[in-house]
Amino acid sequence: MGRFDELTVFLRVVKDGSFSAAARTLEMSPSAVSKLIARLEQRLGVRLFERVGGVIRITQEGETLQASGQRVVDAMDDAENAVMNREAGVTGVVRIHTALTTAKYLIAPKLPALLEQHPQLRIEFLLGTERGDFIKQGIDIAVHSGRPTELSLVGRPLMKRPWVIAASPEYLSRHGTPSVPEDLLGHRCLNFTIRTQWNMWTFRDAGSIKTIDAPNYIGSNQGELLRTLALHGLGVVRLAEFHIGADLSKGTLVPLLGSYQEQSDDDRFYLLYLGGRSVAPRVRAVIDFLCQNFPA
Q1: Pairing of strands 92-98, 121-127
Q2: How confident is the model at residue 87 (pLDDT cuts 50, 70, 90)?
Q3: CB atoms closer than 10 angstroms to residue 178
Q4: What percent of the chain clears pLDDT 70, i.e. is strictly above it?
Q5: What fold does the segment set 85-156+272-293 form as a domain?
Q6: In this predicted model, what pLDDT tens digit does every residue of 109-155 receive, in sequence order?
Q7: 262: helix, coil or strand?
Q8: Is-same-fold flag (85-156+272-293; 163-260)?
Q9: Are residues 8 and 73 in contact, defined by beta-carbon separation less than 8 angstroms?
Q10: Is there a contact between 147 and 264 (Cβ–Cβ < 8 Å)?
């Protein structure tokens, strides 16, 4: 096997988490995989994995090779896709980084149409509320709220993201319904533990903007858990309309302070991808699809 084959085996071990699992995927023997990794480590002069009690853990040097190596493999895939089977359509894997709620409520319902249009396309989700590292994590595109500040990224605006303050009928029957924003200071608010600027609830009152630092009763880094907590009557929550729209329609959550709600034109989703290089056909297909289905 050549250097590219060694790199392919290395990346498969990283992905599958063990030599034996990688061997099964590659239809090789575990000893053959181990020898290839050992040969690669000897040639590079570094250890790519720590081996402790039959468990492997990637080293810092291994993480560096993973990031660079994934780009090499992706480039090879893109080169082959560009010249082979053009009539067969878009092929390959597209890695999408986004929050759980965005993936679940916005992107997943549209995937059947995308994959029907491009049946040889494969999607991998990398879930996280904070923006990921495109190079280190091998991200192709990301969908996150807020204007991009990274100079290396291209940001295309998608749909707006209105916020809604809501609580369950059970909570309101026990604790009362806030009639003005200041009433929230006496309520049990459910807040994010990341992107804490989301906990500054903004309102428009008599033509001016006011902000309430909502008191935290229970916090989470996942909006989906905050939604569940609100449905169980544990407090007042501020979440995106797309996230709790069905709950509002069913009446399991009740919208609050609607006449005071302030929505910024900057509060929208952006589709992000690396600039300064040609975009692979598989990535371009997903970008175009999402932009068409989430009009700005």
Answers
A1: parallel
A2: very low
A3: 19
A4: 92
A5: D-Maltodextrin-Binding Protein; domain 2 (3.40.190)
A6: 999 999 999 999 999 999 988 878 888 888 999 999 887 777 788 88
A7: coil
A8: yes
A9: yes
A10: no
Distances (CA, A) of 189 to 100, 144, 183, 185, 216: 21, 24, 11, 9, 5
CATH architecture of 3-71: Orthogonal Bundle (1.10)
Strands 141-145 vs 92-98: parallel, antiparallel or unpaired = parallel
pLDDT digit string (tens) for 180-217?
999 999 999 999 887 667 777 888 877 788 888 888 89
In the chain, where are the structural domains located? 3-71, 85-156+272-293, 163-260
The strands making up 163-167's β-sheet, listed across from edge to edge, are 216-220, 189-192, 236-240, 163-167, 254-256
Which helix (H) or strand (E) segment holds residue 2: the answer is none
